[in-house]
Write a sequence for this structure.
């Protein structure tokens, strides 16, 4: 295990996820930031926070760009320097990465990193079009490919190559709804049955409605600092001990394999190495279950099981609370919801709760080591962090 | 178009599609086939490239049938799209037409076909290709 952490998380906040009628992105971010401020009474935000990094995927949803100062203004951080980071559905995981760089560089001892997206006020075909912008326009979108469609092609390839079944994919949805039902901030806090998932309407065969994550409004943030400063702000920090990020082709069609998301896999290898950990050390993980097949691929890419055995891994109950590794205890993107820009730091928020024993009914007993796996687009961006209880 | 003077760009790719050709960039240095064409070889960084016509016959690697789609494709839904391997390292995404959804199988032989009519207004004005059995 890595002796010295990269950085320490001293506070975290997350808005309620859901259909947040009448609230826009900057207001949702304020909800998250307020929680982070309240958890950390020794912090004087305007004085102590030296930079703000905000992950946001698109301007189209709210007809609003320039997220850095927009958010800084609403959370009381002006005139602090602010930045927007964009990595599609991995936007706020890249905010964490840039925040780590800022702290490690010595330019900013304490930073706020977060993400936000307001989505539910737009019609589904519009949201489908905006989300597709994270994929290649010139060849894929132009030919009618959608985001669910691209992940559906990953599913078809996985089924064809490894014999993964639609039932196994549905089991991911059932598990994550089970976990999400225990998360008071989740968008959809209800259990679903395998039959419900299997009989839901087709979005992009073989993916059905319950294979897809939710269109959600939400925001999330973390306050991170140098490990040596952490104790000044909290008795219970969570350390980031390993971090990795990689890129892949923008088009799925340019790749040699459609059954793995290589950027996520490479990011995991970097993070494990830096943290001096193995997949078997991970107690709790938030993975990028934007579609159920993506969680099955993540089990394999993260080394929780062998290539091709992701379907069996869920079927055997290895990824539920009490299994080999508790995956998506928050409910994941599937049940907690997926306000795309907010997802990366919301995953870290869940790991923060788990490693500080604040996860309530879904607490993984004795969780020491956590992991987040955030994918941008169809795997063009992959970010993995490994966390340790402070 | 005389191939020697055509830049290795996306616009050129679609100009060739208008001539009913699928063209990629072949690296004269390392032999890599770059499809879609890019201004340099992304394997060895050489800018010594030449156009290569890709055969129109290939095999379906993966596919889906899309039901929920953006406004512009709604009149076609449900429609099939897939990724076809035309030859080694030449993969192309596109719609699969002239086939029932039940007939589509991974590994089936497909051929590139070209649309006769221009369907879009404003940017972009690219001609369309698709796959059929």
């Amino acid at each position: 295990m890595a002796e010295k952490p990269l950085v320490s998380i001293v506070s975290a906040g997350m808005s309620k996820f859901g259909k947040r009628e009448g609230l826009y992105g900057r207001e949702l971010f304020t909800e998250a930031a307020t929680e982070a401020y309240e958890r950390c009474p020794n912090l004087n935000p305007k004085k102590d926070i030296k930079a703000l990094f905000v992950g946001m995927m698109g301007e189209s949803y709210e007809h609003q760009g320039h997220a850095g100062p927009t958010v800084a203004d609403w959370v009381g951080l002006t005139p602090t320097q602010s930045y927007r980071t964009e990595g599609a559905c991995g936007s706020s995981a890249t905010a964490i990465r840039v925040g780590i760089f800022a702290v490690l560089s010595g330019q900013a001892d304490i930073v706020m990193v977060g993400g936000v997206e307001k989505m539910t006020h737009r019609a589904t075909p519009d949201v489908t079009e905006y989300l597709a912008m994270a994929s290649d326009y010139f060849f894929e979108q132009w030919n009618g490919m959608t985001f669910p469609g691209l992940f559906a092609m990953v599913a078809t390839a996985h089924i064809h190559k490894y014999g993964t079944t639609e039932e196994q994919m549905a089991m991911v949805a059932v598990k994550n709804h089970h976990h999400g039902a225990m998360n008071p901030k989740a968008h959809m806090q209800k259990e679903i049955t395998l039959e419900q998932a299997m009989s839901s309407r087709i979005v992009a065969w073989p993916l059905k409605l319950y294979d897809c994550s939710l269109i959600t409004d939400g925001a999330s943030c973390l306050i991170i600092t140098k490990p040596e400063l952490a104790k000044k702000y909290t008795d219970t920090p969570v350390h980031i001990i390993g971090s990795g990020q990689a890129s892949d082709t923008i088009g799925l069609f340019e790749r040699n394999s459609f059954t793995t998301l290589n950027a996520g896999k490479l990011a995991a290898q970097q993070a494990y190495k830096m943290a001096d950990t193995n997949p078997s050390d991970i107690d709790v993980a938030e993975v990028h279950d934007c579609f159920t097949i993506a969680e099955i691929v993540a089990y394999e890419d993260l080394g929780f099981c062998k290539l091709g055995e992701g379907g069996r891994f869920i079927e055997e109950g290895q990824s539920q609370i009490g299994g080999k590794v508790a995956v998506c205890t928050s409910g994941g993107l599937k049940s907690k919801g997926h306000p795309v820009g907010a997802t990366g730091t919301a995953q870290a928020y869940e790991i923060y709760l788990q490693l500080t024993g604040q996860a309530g009914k879904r607490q993984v007993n004795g969780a020491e080591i956590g992991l987040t796996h955030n994918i941008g687009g169809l795997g063009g961006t992959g970010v993995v962090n490994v966390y340790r209880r402070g | 178009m005389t191939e020697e003077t055509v830049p290795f760009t996306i616009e050129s790719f679609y100009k060739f599609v208008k001539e009913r050709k699928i063209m990629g960039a072949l690296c004269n240095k390392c032999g890599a086939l770059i499809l879609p064409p890019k201004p340099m070889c992304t394997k060895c960084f050489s800018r010594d490239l030449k156009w290569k016509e890709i055969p129109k016959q290939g095999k379906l690697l993966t596919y889906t049938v899309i039901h929920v789609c953006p406004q512009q494709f709604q009149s076609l839904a449900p429609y099939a799209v897939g990724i076809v391997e035309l030859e080694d390292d030449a993969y192309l995404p596109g719609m699969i037409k002239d086939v029932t959804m039940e007939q589509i199988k991974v590994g089936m032989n497909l051929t590139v076909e070209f649309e006769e009519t221009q369907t879009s207004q404003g940017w972009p004005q690219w001609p369309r290709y698709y796959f059929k059995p």
Notes: Helices of chain B lie at 10-18. The mean pLDDT of chain B is 93. Residues 57-132 of chain B form one domain. The longest helix of chain B spans residues 10-18.
